[in-house]
């Protein structure tokens, strides 16, 4: 009897082990597939950043058309006119004059995802001055008289400057590539491409008729830039960029009655030095 009970116990024990093994094998893949979700604090988060800086600018030559057939009678073009920037860095050291020099301001967001992309809004305050007393070929008509010759352009004839300024308001797509990283210092390459309106302020004199401002829509600008960014202790950064842009002025007021228009297209190259702050989210 003992032998029968012992044999029955061994049989049941081995049977239990045989049934348990298949269930254990089937359960393992389910356990692997249902991995625990990544805690929110370990997921990558974005950061908001703000920067402020200053720039120097260089411009391509351009053909500038001046036209008013409503309250005056002229329609002429400067062919291949040259223009320069106006940095005004002498005012940089005055605490209440930070916006007098050519400055740059950006507000953006980096996603910190695997693509390392971001979006930003930038305000580039450049200055554009058509050089006075330069010899320019002038073509068209001025108050009924045809002109098609090289002319010394003095301020009494025509003066044009976007100095308050040649302003680019752009929305940019940002791409970051980390080049070198240490616990408290990170060096990255930054690329941008963007476009937006020009909200500019122009000072002009055409045939003795003077006009200043106001700030308004003048045209469109598209641009791209490449630069280096050094993040220090995550919260502070220094950045330098070289930006190329294409500006199309279509709505610049001329004359005290604002009935005239100046139109021109030019390219600009902008060297920017900036500092800023990161706010990790």
Structure in words:
The protein is mainly β. It folds into 2 domains: 1-35; 45-280, Porin, CATH 2.40.160. Helices cover 11% and strands 63% of the residues. Strands 1-5-6-9-10-13-14-15 form an 8-stranded antiparallel β-barrel. A hairpin with a 2-residue loop joins strand 9 (158-182) and strand 10. The longest helix has 32 residues, at 2-33. The model is unreliable at 1-35 (pLDDT under 50).
What is the name of the CATH topology of the largest domain?
Answer: Porin
Number of strands: 15
**Computed Rg:** 33 Å
Mean pLDDT across residues:
87
Percent helix: 10-25%
Spatial order of the strands in the main sheet? 1-5-6-9-10-13-14-15
Write the H/E string, N to C. Answer: HEEEEEEEEEEEEEEE
Measure the end-to-end span: 76 Å
Descriptive terms for the model:
281 residues, mainly beta, Porin, 2 domains, eight-stranded antiparallel barrel, elongated, disordered N terminus
Give me the secondary-structure topology.
Elements: H1 2-33, E1 47-59, E2 62-68, E3 74-81, E4 83-84, E5 103-110, E6 117-130, E7 134-142, E8 145-153, E9 158-182, E10 185-200, E11 202-206, E12 209-212, E13 216-232, E14 236-254, E15 260-280
Summed up, what is this model?
Helices cover 11% and strands 63% of the residues. Mean pLDDT is 87; it is low at 1-35.
């Amino acid at each position: 009897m003992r032998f029968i009970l012992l044999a029955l116990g061994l049989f049941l024990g081995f049977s239990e082990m045989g049934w348990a093994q298949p269930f254990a094998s089937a359960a393992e893949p389910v356990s692997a597939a249902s991995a625990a979700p990544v805690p929110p604090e370990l997921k990558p988060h974005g950061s908001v950043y703000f920067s402020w800086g200053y720039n120097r600018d260089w411009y391509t030559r351009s053909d500038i058309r001046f036209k008013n057939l409503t309250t005056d009678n002229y329609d002429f073009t400067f062919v291949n006119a040259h223009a320069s920037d106006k940095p005004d860095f002498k005012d940089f050291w005055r605490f209440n004059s930070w916006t007098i020099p050519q400055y740059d301001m950006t507000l953006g967001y980096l996603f910190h995802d695997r693509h390392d992309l971001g979006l930003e809004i930038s305000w580039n305050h450049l200055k554009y001055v058509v050089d006075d007393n330069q010899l320019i070929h002038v073509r068209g008509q001025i108050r009924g008289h045809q002109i098609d010759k090289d002319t010394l352009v003095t301020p009494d004839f025509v003066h044009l400057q976007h100095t308050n300024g040649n302003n680019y308001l752009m929305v940019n797509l940002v791409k970051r590539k980390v080049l070198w990283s240490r616990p408290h210092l990170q060096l990255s390459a930054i690329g941008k491409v963007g476009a937006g309106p020009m909200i500019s302020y122009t000072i002009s004199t055409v045939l003795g008729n003077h006009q200043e401002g106001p700030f308004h829509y003048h045209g469109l600008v598209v641009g791209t830039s490449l630069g280096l960014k050094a993040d220090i202790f995550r919260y502070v950064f220094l950045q330098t960029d070289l930006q190329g842009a294409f500006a199309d002025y279509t709505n610049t007021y001329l004359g005290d009655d604002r009935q005239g228009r100046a139109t021109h297209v030019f390219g600009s190259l902008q060297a920017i030095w900036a500092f800023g702050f990161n706010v990790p989210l």
